[in-house]
Automatic annotation (TrEMBL), chains A, B:
Keyword entries, A-Z: DNA-binding, Repressor, Transcription, Transcription regulation, Zinc
Keyword Zinc (UniProt): yes
Organism lineage: Bacteria, Bacillati, Actinomycetota, Actinomycetes, Kitasatosporales
Keyword Transcription regulation belongs to the record: yes
Organism: Streptomyces rubiginosohelvolus
Protein name per Swiss-Prot or TrEMBL: Transcriptional repressor
Family statement drawn from the similarity comment of this UniProt entry: Belongs to the Fur family.
Amino acid sequence: MSDLLGRLRGRGWRMTSQRRVVAEVLDGDHVHLTADEVHLRAAARLPEISRATVYNTLGELVALGEVLEVSTVGRAKRYDPNARNPHQHLVCSGCGTVRDVHPVGNAIGDLPEEERFGFAVGSVEMTYRGLCPACA
Amino acid sequence: MSDLLGRLRGRGWRMTSQRRVVAEVLDGDHVHLTADEVHLRAAARLPEISRATVYNTLGELVALGEVLEVSTVGRAKRYDPNARNPHQHLVCSGCGTVRDVHPVGNAIGDLPEEERFGFAVGSVEMTYRGLCPACA
DNA sequence: TTCTTGACTTGGACGAAGTCCATCGTAGGA
DNA sequence: TCCTACGATGGACTTCGTCCAAGTCAAGAA
Ligand SMILES: [Mn+2]
Ligand SMILES: [Mn+2]
Ligand SMILES: [Zn+2]
Ligand SMILES: [Zn+2]
């Protein structure tokens, strides 16, 4: 993720302190923050950053494919910087913790031809659910 | 789904015209309506039904396991009356159409032990994405 | 059949998440 | 150093959903 700033510069992005701070907050493994959490952590380093800028930057990163949006049931979207590594998610039904996982097998191949309804199927998202050790 | 009213009565539900109409709207295959769509269709039969009652009834049906909530990316939740038949979803990236599908294979078994992080994994949700014939 | 009562419905206020926009500020090239 | 187009800002606005006090009525009792 530290190379992200270089890639953005290469795409002609004007490098601002706000964008740098948002990119720094999105660094690490198993990171799946909501926009408000990103704003909170960014504001710890750059107190005057606005919510609108966080939303703008996250939206731009998603459009560039540098960050993935993870939808949750009825809660705020989560932003996942681990976009270069295809993966799925394991979510704790108790506390909501999210882990990146890599199932084996070919999930797309498991969809029978007669259930494709003529669609050109391109991808599949999988969410495993269960209780984490702390919640069990 | 027509048996739903009987099951609800068996659970001690007071049978009101509002609940009957919501149950009727949720009848059929490949039905994945938003709460507002349910309200719109219910109001066609019972014009004075309120949004609050639609939300209340949907929430109760979900709590009883008679209806499933399907989360979408950033849009309103969808309500799925096909809860007695375990299935996954195929979604058109163009128009948003949702079809019920039944992949073969054992998706839970495809999650390696070393990636379970000690979780008791109980279920997996899969969303296939692609373009439907009309959008392609 | 009528009465009674607590479960159900209603509309509107409220809240959380996210978008939009006019205005101001500044990164980075000339 | 100066210019200016791109980006940041904050507040209004929208969408989706929840909550509540007050009124209504389904269904059991008599
Ligand atoms: Mn992830
Ligand atoms: Mn379904
Ligand atoms: Zn947990
Ligand atoms: Zn389509």
